[in-house]
Amino acid sequence: MSRIEQALKKVAGNQAVNKNKQPDEDISPAKTVAPEKTVSVDEVPDSQTVPASTFVPAASSLKLNNPMLLTTMHGDRSPVAEEYNKLRSLVVKLTKGETFLNTIMITSTIGEEGKSLTSLNLAIALAREYDHTVLLVDTDLRRPSLHKQLRIDSKPGLIQCLKDNFPLHKALIKTGLGKLVFLPSGGTLKDPVETLSSNRMKELISELKNRYPERYVIFDTPPSLPFADAQVLAPSVDSTIFVVREGKAKAQDVKEAITNLQGTNLLGVVYNDAKTTARKKHYYYY
Asked: Within 13 Å and on the Cβ side, how many CA atoms surround 160?
């Protein structure tokens, strides 16, 4: 049985268990290492905005207080940090070869599975440990959240570069988190598929891939089952990482979402917020 099939089988099993749970028993990523009131990346409501006074100028070293980010976890040896470090090592192993697969798209089946948190923490892990820069691009033009977590204004960003010919280099933000550079979404679009499928977007991805051939470029995209954005972008990037949160999406929906990405290079599945039976009973990210 393949690793993906094992993950899907486990999702199906947990769906059956979760049917008997009360709503307040659901496990959220934030609760694994933070107080109950902490909100995870993908659970920030659209209406919740970061006050303007908290935004920092470009090229400043960001001071983050989200306990779910690698930079603020209680030590790099914490169980959650260890899992992200394992993910980083696997990604490097799978993408380094005769051809460097340096453009990676991250998506999920539905919302609130942790795909944005995975994108950000993977980018931070790569930027802190390797000798090349990492560019994180917020291509979730429906409900962008990365700028909120980094406490950076969302504009100018990707939308302005695509639609207004805004210079790309002026939209890039040096975060001060290792060699991590961030390209914000630039706001939201009601129907971003046309923009993301445009020749300009394909040219931009090619430019990002080839301008710095040693740099990883990570694209955070909307969930793939309700929206076509990920399917549109997948053929233009080298590989895709699929995030599945335990007990969240139905197993059949996960299978359908992965099937929709057939023909593209699926690098692997991140099984997120998984409860293990380890002796210390920690919650791990896989």
From this structure: 16
Q: What's the CATH code of the domain at 72?
A: 3.40.50.300
Where in the sequence is the domain holding 159, given as residue range(s)? 3-43+61-284
Task: Please check whether residue 56 lies inside any domain of the structure.
Answer: no
Give residue for tokens 């006050």. Answer: 51
Residue 162 inside a domain? The answer is yes
Quick check: is 50 in a domain?
Answer: no
The DSSP code sequence of 243-265 is EEETTTS-HHHHHHHHHHTTTS-
List, in sequence order, every residue forming a beta bridge with 268; answer none if it has no partner. 241
Structure tokens at 228: 């076509």
Q: How many domains does the structure of the chain reveal?
A: 1
Tokens 């993910």 belong to 87
* Cα of 44 vs its chain's centroid, Å: 14
Q: Rounded to 10 degrees, what is the CA torsion of 214, 261, 143, 28?
A: -90
Helix axes 251-260, 3-18, angle to 10 degrees: 150
**For residue 36, what pLDDT is reported?**
32
Q: Which two tokens stand for residue 268?
A: 């692997």
**156-185, pLDDT tens digit by residue?**
999 999 999 999 999 999 988 888 999 999
> Which pair of structure tokens corresponds to residue 256?
């359908």
CB neighbour class for 237 (10 Å; exposed up to 12, middle 13-18, buried from 19): buried
Give the residue ranges of the chain where pLDDT is below 70.
1-67, 70-77, 130-132, 276-286
